[in-house]
Amino acid sequence: MSYGKDDPVAEVACAPQSREGEPGREDEPGRALAFGAPARAPRKTEEEDDDMELPPLDTDPNAGDDDADDGSFDDALPELRDDGGDPLDDANAQDLDVGLDVDEDADAGSGDDAEEGVDVGSLDEDLATLDSEESALDEDRDESAFGDDDAADLELDATQDDGGAEGTGENAENDVDESALPELDESANDEADDEALADELLEEAARGKLPPWAPSRFVVLEGAGAPVPCTAVTVCGGRVLAAGDVVLVVDEGAHAARQTGLDTPSTAVVATDEVTVVASARGGLLVSRDGCASATPVAGFRSGKSSVELAATPGRIWILHEGSLWSMTGREGTPVLAREGGVRAIKAAGGTLVVLATRPEGAAIERLRGDDEAWQRAPLEGAAAELAVGDPRSSLAVAAAGRRVAIVSPRGLLLSNDGAHSFESVDLHDVIGACFAGDEEDAPLYALMVPPGNATSYVVRVGEDGDVSRVAELRGPDGTGLGEASIAWDGSREVVWIASRLGLVALGPARPH
To answer: Where is this region: Disordered (predicted)?
Structure first.
């Protein structure tokens, strides 16, 4: 038998049985023989099985103990390598004579079964390839390519429950209601959504946060005004005018309001010494030249769906409609376009018209003192510009010929005492209207605060030094809120008039008895 070059075997010398049949003896002088086992048994053919002779098995476990004890066995081992190399190197093992030959074809197996092998068939039989077969994931695949038996094994009957292992038998797209999904392009509603979110955040921040009560409070003056729903109020000299379901007027020296002959629902009213102009709920204009006993439509004015805001300076009526500013002069005057577009709010005080305007170059407060003077423009920056542009509900309160300006919005209140060149923020929210208590430089500001979802509204006083305090509260008899409301200062009576769905009421210090 011979070994291959790489067969791992123990490097020991093997010899046939000695003459006496005992291993490990010296049969020839000077030559010690020892028998060792190879690392693995060699393969042999059936023919070699009969010819091969093996040494007898040593069944005595104690045999050789004497030799082992006296070290004769170790002494009998030959020096395998005397060249100082690795004793385990079997590079020359192929030169050893082990007494038998091994057929090179023995490794191919023995017996008939080994020669015939196992027939596993063609490896590429019944296998789908990308070049010859369509993918089973292809939506357009041929259903006939799969047999009925295969389909029966893969498909699950609708009445059977697989515990979710194979999913449902229905297409998941059928469970999606596309009509309930939002449109992908919602850019048109982004601004409205942002405003709604900002309002909600402001409401949460201001909820439960109210200014402290002032040491002295206002009370509702008995007998003043009228329990008729109103939306706007203005003071012209000694007269008080209110617009609502009907037009109310409080004459000079009186406190109770009377109904005029203008029974048309209206949203705004303003007056000069010559005429009274009323904005109807339908967007038209009515002019009265007989103290509101009658009125006629204003010729040359196109009505619209948006509301109309009115202001008055000596001898002139100013009209804000759909972002444009119009003016009327004289008893028979017709509206003339004064500014096309970009106007957000108007207010007049001391013969000066103040305008909150937005232009391509930015937002600004503009003042017009008379026909012989040009517009004076004060650009807005920071919070003032953001409030003016971002909230369409912004309004104005002015005093001292426009040197004192307040920008009013439910989102905040900004106050300027230098002609709108700089503004200070007042810690108030949910303010829907404000007015200065007079035309002086140190006149306090009264703001109408209407918290959302609260039936109680408050009148808040902002002093010259910026201190804020509540001076009055309003609540309907059945818990009804104010709704759309307006506030105006009456210097001749030193009271604050408030027009709301609760009616026209006057608030002021308690009268001594």
So the answer is: 1-180
**CATH number for 458:** 2.130.10.10
Q: Which of 33-37, 68-72, 409-413 has the lowest mean pLDDT?
A: 33-37
- Do 452 and 332 share a structural domain? yes
Indicate whether 361 pLDDT > 80. Answer: yes
Cβ count near 339 (within 10 Å): 19
For the sheet with 495-500, list strands across it.
218-220, 503-509, 495-500, 486-490
Nearest to 318 by CA among 371, 257, 281, 277: 277
134 and 142 Cβ atoms separated by less than 8 Å: yes
Residues 12-57: tens digit of each pLDDT: 333 444 444 444 444 444 444 444 444 444 454 444 445 555 555 5
Q: Which of 155 and 395 is assigned the larger pLDDT?
A: 395
Nearest to 444, CA basis, from 422, 411, 467: 467
Q: Which two tokens stand for residue 280?
A: 């109807």
Q: How much is the CA Rg of the chain, to the nearest whole Å?
A: 54
Which letter does DSSP use for residue 181 in this model? Answer: S
Task: Give the Å distances, CA to CA, from 306 to 20, 322, 482.
Answer: 132, 6, 22
**Is 194 exposed, middle or buried, given 0-12, 13-18 or 19+ CB atoms closer than 10 A?**
exposed
Angle at 258 between CA 271 and CA 348, to 5 degrees: 20
Enumerate helices (H) and strands (E) in the chain, giving the number of each: 7, 28
Q: Write out the residue range of the structural domain in which residue 288 sits.
A: 218-509
| Residue 350 CB-density burial (10 A; 0-12 exposed, 13-18 middle, 19+ buried) | middle
Instruction: State the amino acid at position 480 in one-letter form.
Output: T
Q: Give the span between the Cα atoms of 454 and 237, in whole angstroms.
A: 34
User: What is the pairing mode between strands 316-321 and 324-329?
Assistant: antiparallel
By three-state DSSP, how is residue 107 classified? helix
Task: Give the number of other CB atoms < 10 A from CB of residue 381.
Answer: 14
Q: What is the pLDDT of residue 101?
A: 53
Domain membership of residue 189 (yes or no) is no
Domain count, the chain: 2
What is the rounded CA–CA span in Å between residue 377 and residue 380? 10
**Domain end residue (candidates: 88, 107, 126):** 107
Rounded Cα gap, residues 408 and 430, in angstroms: 9
Domain boundary among 107, 125, 148: 107
User: What are 177-205's pLDDT values in tens digits?
Assistant: 666 665 555 444 555 566 666 655 655 55
Give dist(CA 479, CA 281) in Å, integer. Answer: 26
Residue 227 lies in a domain: yes
Are residues 284 and 430 part of one domain? yes
| Number of C-beta neighbours around residue 389 at 10 A | 15
